[in-house]
Amino acid sequence: MSALDWFVLLGTMVGIAAYGTWRTRHTDNLNTYLKGSRTTKWGTIGLSIMATQASTITYLSLPGQAYESGIAFIQNYFGLPLALIIVCAVFLPIYRKLGVYTAYEYLGKRFDQKTRLLGAAIFLLQRGVQSGITIYAPAIILSTVMGWSLNLTIIFTGIVVIIYTVTGGSVAVSLTQKWQMGVIFAGMVTAFVILLTKLPAGAMEVAGAMGKLEAVDFSLDPSRRYTIWSGLLGGLFLSLSYFGTDQTQVQRYIGGEQLREGRLGLMFNALFKIPMQFFIVILGALLFVFYQLQPQTPVFFNRAEWNRHVDGPQGEKFREIEARHAQLQAQTEGKIRAWLDAREGQDAGAAAVARAEMVAAQEASNGIRREARAALLEADPRAKVKDSDYVFITFITTQLPAGVVGLLIAVMFASALSSKAGELNALGTTSTIDLWRHFRPLAAHDEARNVRNAKWFTAFWGAFAISFALFASFAENLIEALNIIASIFYPVVLGLFVVAFFLRRVGGTAVFYSALGALGVIATLFFVGRAHPEYNIGYLWYNPIGCAACVVFSLALQAVLPAKKEGR
Amino acid sequence: MTQPPDEFEGVPDGRAGVGIGPGAGRRNDEPPGVPGFHTWRGVYWFVFGCFVLMVLLLALFTRVYA
Question: Has residue B3 got a pLDDT over 50?
């Protein structure tokens, strides 16, 4: 990176963090520290919700996913607007009416303390670990590409976010997220415009012809990963549990002077989330076209991993793969340009032939990419063969002008900081309100002590996240395991809230044991799917199944439990 | 979709003695303060309509390019 890039990167990253710390340095009121300023407007809340959800993975991996598999992933977001309407109409008014700090406080008021602790414990477990991954995942990619130290990248990112989140709490998080979203929008639009200037006319048609623009799939085939049905139903339940019951999101919208501010912030996301994600996946699809027209397109985008083998004992084999890929790449480029020329003419038959040749050339090029991955695995069974996460960052570092590179790297850090800050803020709040206050009820009225403890808990979770991220580099398989645990727990928490809202006869004891039973059902589905892949179902389906199991078990258990044990 | 079914209106809380069911928000509803909308129900229908339009446009996009 040039000096200008470093100036832009550090200026935006440290500048926003310093501004947030300075503006909120006198925050000592518990309500403001945990819920944010009463003067926060709906626009800030809306951007804060968006910033908390979208981590660096969104901006790094999503274009890569579209590059590799097309834009069908967009269907995963189809349940989101519907879920936000339900959160707006049902969840938010109740949280506001009760004046709770956390979603789990509501479970305590509606059921009993053990159900509240179950909800809070599940949240702390899964989100605490997730916060480590939020730092680790972008750091491993950025450090690999930029040649930075992984550990220093993790520690620096973690310390910056801890400083302003501990200092200003929720109000600092919302304030900084607003500016960080500004950097993210500016950077992504700039990259998109520069990419457009590098593409020939007809680029969208090329992407479409190569199967990258299938946004909606009406297929009823359950083996297809992304369809409109899995997106609507699975996405609805997933979004409902995330936005309605996950404290990282609840904390973002329960603040503000009036109920209206939170509601409009949620509706802002319901309207703009799908267009924003569409913009990101289209960027990925167009990157695909761009790299089909480049003679220097790498056969494998994680250059550090690839070069390790090119310089190794089997280097000859890897260089031979590279040479064949370059040859096929030149052929693909020629076929694409021939098809674009043929489309200009009036001969539909010639255009159809040219199109078929273009698709065949691209498929041959894909074959070489598959061969490259197989060679990597053969040389080293532990090699990281997924290179789609490196596509966009490769474009950024090799194709963008000085200054803009720094801006785009700042986008990656801004998104890491904004989602991380939301997580730490929520973890500190839940630890203080649902755990510490529960075990120290007499201290609940000492406001200064509450704020002090919230700050200590926030710092603790920040340090935990850094430690986990540093440890994760030694145990990457652990990350996958913990992601799976999260997808098993999420639907059950939603089940707790659905019972709380809609089944007034069900008490705490029934719902508590039903939640544990539903966890068992999801865990069984998962392990059976692993042992017998023919019975495996997509993880999105865990959400409606786990939630439904919790609801049905609760009704059944309540019917057989004696009234005195119902716990209400 | 935009409002919970009527049978959930005013669900009482078993312990706290305050309305904490889905009807709680409706009873304390406030105007949205958005030009052109008098109720939140109207805002929700507008957002839902935009969502349906987005899905239709994406389906059309798929048909044109894929």
Answer: no
Does the CA dihedral A479-A119-A159-A184 come out positive or negative? positive
What pLDDT is recorded for position A121? Answer: 92
What are the DSSP calls for B1-64, one per residue?
--S--GGGTTPBPSSS-SB-STHHHHHT------TT-SSHHHHHHHHHHHHHHHHHHHHHHHHH
In terms of Cα–Cα distance, which of A296, A315, A266, A289 is closest to A90? A266
The DSSP secondary-structure symbol of A88 reads I
Give A234's DSSP letter: I
Could you tell me if residue B1 is inside a domain? no
Q: How many domains does chain B have?
A: 1
Query: Which residues have C-beta within 8 Å of that of residue B24, sequence separation ≥ 6?
Result: A93, A94, A97, B11, B18
> How confident is the model over A286-317, as pLDDT tens digits?
999 999 998 888 989 888 888 888 888 888 88
Counting Cβ atoms within 10 Å, is residue A163 exposed (0-12), middle (13-18) or buried (19+)?
middle
Question: Residue A106 and residue B2: Cβ atoms within 8 Å?
Answer: no
Nearest CA in chain B to A98: B20
Q: Is residue B43 part of a domain?
A: yes
CA-based nearest distance B32→chain A, Å: 6
Structure tokens at A518: 């539903």
B61, B63, B64, best to mutate vs chain A, most A CBs in 10 Å: B61
Residue B23 domain flag: yes
Instruction: Write out pLDDT tens, residues A169-219.
Output: 888 888 888 888 899 999 999 999 999 999 998 899 999 999 899 999 998
Alpha carbons A229 and A516: distance in angstroms, whole number: 28
Whether residue B55 is contained in a domain is answered as yes
Rounded Cα distance, B43 and B37, in Å: 6
Beta-carbon separation of A275 and B1 below 8 A: no
Percentage of the residues of chain B whose pLDDT score is greater than 70: 56
Structure confidence at residue A491 (pLDDT)? 86
> In whole angstroms, what is the distance from residue A415 CA to residue A85 CA?
25
Identify from B40, B41, B52 which residue to disrupt to test chain A contact, counting A C-beta atoms within 10 A and taking the largest count.
B40
How many CA atoms, within 13 angstroms, populate the side-chain half-sphere of residue A76?
19
How many helices, marked H, and strands, marked E, lie in chain A?
Answer: 24, 0
Does residue B34 sit at the A interface (CB-CB below 8 Å)?
A: yes
| Alpha carbons A375 and A381: distance in angstroms, whole number | 10
Question: B48: domain range?
Answer: 6-65
Ramachandran angles phi, psi of B12, nearest 5°: -80, 155
Residues in chain A where the model's pLDDT stays below 50: 566-568
Distance CA B44, CA B33 (A): 14
* A–B CB contacts, 8 A cutoff, strictly below: 122
B54 chain-A contacts, CB cut-off 8 A: 274-275
Record the tokens describing residue B5, joined without a space. 């079914």
CB–CB of B14 and A504 under 8 A? Answer: yes
A118: burial class by Cβ within 10 Å (0-12, 13-18, 19+)?
A: buried
A263 and chain B in contact, CB less than 8 A:
yes
